[in-house]
Design a protein that fits this description.
The chain is α/β, with parallel strands linked by helices. It folds into three domains: 7-94, no CATH class; 97-129, no CATH class; 140-319, no CATH class. The protein is built from three helices and 18 strands. Helix 1 (16-27) crosses helix 2.
Length: 326
Amino acid sequence: MTDATSWLPEPDDSNRPFFEGAWRSIRAGSPGMDVPVAIAMGLAFLASCYNFFRGAGEVWFDSVVMFIFFLLVSRYFELMARKRGAETAESLGQALPVMATRLSTGGSQSQIPVADLNVGDRVLVKPGETIPADGSIETGQSTINILDTGTSEEGIDDLFIYGTLQDDFFLLRAQRNPIWGRVMASVSAIQVDADRKPVPNGFVERVNYDGAIEGRFVIYGREGDDTFVLDDNMAPTVIFGDAGNDTFQIGQVYASPRDGINPDNGLAPEDYFETTQITRGYLSNGASVSTTMFGGTGSDSLSIRFFSFQWTRVSTSISVPAFGSL
């Protein structure tokens, strides 16, 4: 005769981690998610055993087994996600430079480990070097290339640009013709004078990006009376004017083409961008990709030079809510 207890499922290694984790968290004084899971499994198992021996009522042995199975599967995916996150963090850590060039008060330079940098230190970043830490640019011009080589299956890339607390001038352009150079777009912060006009030969802080930014491309103007001028873009763009009396301009009219058709336009080939001939000159695209702009607080203004829709091109959606004045 077969013993009735041989028909009961026995606890094994599949559910042991939940009970061990619950016990460890209780001993540490900070119960975690393993505690309710272990209680639920234990109560379901004991209740099923009770009903089994008395020969009446429901048993949930199969439900407990399925519950454990799905929990283990979810833990596996969580472990894989943590592993990928750790690998990404490790690769980012390896991409950072080991040494940095610190500038003293007198202007002398010294090579120190990046880990020895302190808040308030001034650092010299030479052409081609990687920026060693977060900070703001005091002098000189800078160009940062954000060219991701991954695919969308490996993650969605976002780009965030933050302005200063002063009056900023942002210029957005896109180089779309590979004949003229690499397909690339840029956002530049240009030095302005007291009238918020670009200073000839003034300093420029520029960020280059390409079509790999398939997520969010967000610009925060922050405080100050900021100006945003769009000649073209290459990623879904959201612009927040934030505080101040901000100006938004979509498209500009030029006296001549801004590409290789006119090699005397003063632009380097990698800075060419598309224009369309109109009666008054050559109009830049303005926004080729969906663009949303929020004026924020203050008396803001919007200028749209011209709308041109062509059936052969992807339509552009522009939303301009929350402006103080138009």
